[in-house]
Amino acid sequence: MTHADVASSASDRDRPAPTDPPERTPVGAASHSARRRTVDLLLHFGLLPVLLLVAVVTFSLIEPRFLTPLNGTNVSRQLSFLLIVTIGQMLVLLTAEIDMSVGATIALTSVVSSKVMTHVGGDGAGVLLLGVAAGLVVGLVVGLLNGLVVARFKVPSFIVTIGTSSVAVGVALLVSKGSPVTGLPPDFTRVLGTAQVAGVPVSFVVALGVVALVYVLLSWSVLGHYLFAVGGGEDAARLVGVPVLRTKVTAFVLCSMLTSLAGVLLTARVSSGQPTLGQEYVILAIAAAVLGGTSFFGGEGRLGLVAVGALLLVVLSNGMNLIRVPSYTQQVVLGSLLIAAVIIDRLRARAAW
Prior knowledge:
It is a single chain. The chain is mainly α. It has a domain at 66-279. The chain is 76% helix and 1% strand. The protein has a two-stranded antiparallel ribbon with strand order 1-2. The chain is globular, with a radius of gyration of 28 Å. Residues 6-11 have low confidence and may be disordered.
């Protein structure tokens, strides 16, 4: 090797090694990532409040009566019934099941509680409490029937609760002979139907109490953890010692009893026992729960957003009534929202995967 070769070799060793150019994120990929984060944010946190805000602003601009105190009272009263039923439906959905019998449970509760009060006769707190207790017993029986059949025999809850719904409606029609049950105690309709506490309807106060109790149940009780665990996967939950059968039965019982509570409040509001009362709450409760982030696949649900979902549906219904939207058009809107809720649930599930 010549001296020139040695010098050249030494020069090459002393020269700093070339470095790779810094990687640049393609503009399209960065834009796609930003859009994905935005969509995820809307799906998990921001979509529902935005829809509610748009609905409130739109109806306020179209109809001045929308933001009046009187209409606020009407909205809170309508919300109370739907919110209680939706919370019950949410508890069942958390276990990856569904209850299609909530409408029939309301009807049967209305007839049975009314029949008991009119049969006993009289007025006062005793008769009122007896009517409420009779309604809650209806919920207990329906919930036990649904839960035991679904959990013990592993029959799809959709089929079981449709069957239960048919039975409950039939019993309600038989007991009432197809006619409204009238002559309810005045204290019952006054206290639970029209009375207010500091300007707030009693039914809404009851609904707020239900929200508080269920929040405690889901956040700090063992049963709350069991509900999420069963919905996340029955086999895994069973392996860690979760009583799957008992948890599912409890979820159905709580759902039916909350639904019966709403049925009692609705009965007081309409001042009679109606064998066809509450049929619309089947779709409304499912739509509100799913719009609020409760998954059809179980194991996921946030109580606060479920309440917002119920409020959105009530605001839409109230606003459309004020601006005289035909009832069949409202059905189209409701059905579209339910389809949108299912799509959102699928997108949310894909994002989780």
